[in-house]
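Progress note, sequence design subtask.
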């Protein structure tokens, strides 16, 4: 059986005096694709950010690759270098060429030379079908292409787990389709993934496990079959809403 890459244990987290994640426990194994779904404001994005301590939990434990990130004894920069994170917005540097956007973390975090970082960047840009755009600037690309650059940048780190926070939410349907196709290719590469998405068909395709959240807690968790036959009323209600939305787009 594959080993555990990530463990969240009774995690509570939030902003100012408001708890957004309320005692969530969750694990991800090597190569496993965990899809997190739920209504807006249910704590999904905060949970993802808590997994690499971009949001620090108020209580509970976060264990990444066997190291307790909440212990205060772990170099967080070194630990985060084992992960890749793709946000809703692309977070690219507009003044830097595409290849340099991808290469920069390799140089700053992994210690690659300029030449080695460029080679690796070109390799992953080829994987996402953007090698020919390597000398372009982000604003010369479509939104879908920019998000694929962000995916390439995350893949360049050779992550043990890839976090994706609503990676298609800012895109129109046509651009969304090209990003989802890239993510399907990524999913087939065997990297563990923790994905927040409202894309029901995509979730059904890639999920090994599904987590439905509402109001900061897990209301249902199970295999991909959950997306066809949820057991709880709250999960059924949510999936009915997004299923109707998907049918309209």
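Output:
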């Amino acid at each position: 059986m594959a080993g555990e890459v990530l463990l969240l244990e009774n995690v509570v987290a939030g902003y100012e005096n408001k708890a957004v994640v309320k005692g969530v426990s969750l694990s991800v194994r090597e190569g496993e694709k965990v899809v997190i779904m739920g209504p807006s404001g249910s704590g999904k994005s905060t949970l993802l950010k808590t997994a690499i301590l971009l949001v620090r939990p108020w209580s509970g434990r976060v264990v990444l690759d066997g190291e307790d990130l909440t212990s205060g004894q772990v170099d967080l920069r070194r630990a985060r270098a084992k992960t890749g994170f793709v946000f809703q917005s692309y977070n690219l540097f507009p003044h830097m060429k595409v290849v340099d956007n991808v290469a920069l973390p390799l140089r700053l975090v992994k210690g690659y030379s300029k030449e080695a970082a460029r080679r690796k960047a070109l390799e992953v840009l080829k994987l996402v079908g953007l090698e020919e755009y390597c000398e372009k600037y982000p604003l010369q690309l479509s939104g879908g292409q920019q998000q694929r650059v962000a995916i390439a940048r995350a893949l360049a780190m050779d992550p043990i787990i890839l976090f994706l926070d609503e990676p298609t939410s800012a895109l129109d349907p046509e651009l969304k389709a090209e990003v989802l196709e890239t993510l399907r290719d990524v999913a087939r590469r065997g990297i563990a993934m923790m994905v927040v998405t409202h894309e029901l068909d995509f979730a059904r395709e890639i999920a090994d496990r599904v987590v439905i959240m509402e109001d900061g807690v897990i209301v249902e968790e199970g295999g991909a079959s959950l997306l066809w036959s949820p057991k709880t009323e709250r999960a059924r209600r949510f999936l009915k809403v997004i299923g109707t939305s998907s049918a309209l787009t």
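The mean pLDDT is 91. Work on this subtask will continue into the next period as scheduled.
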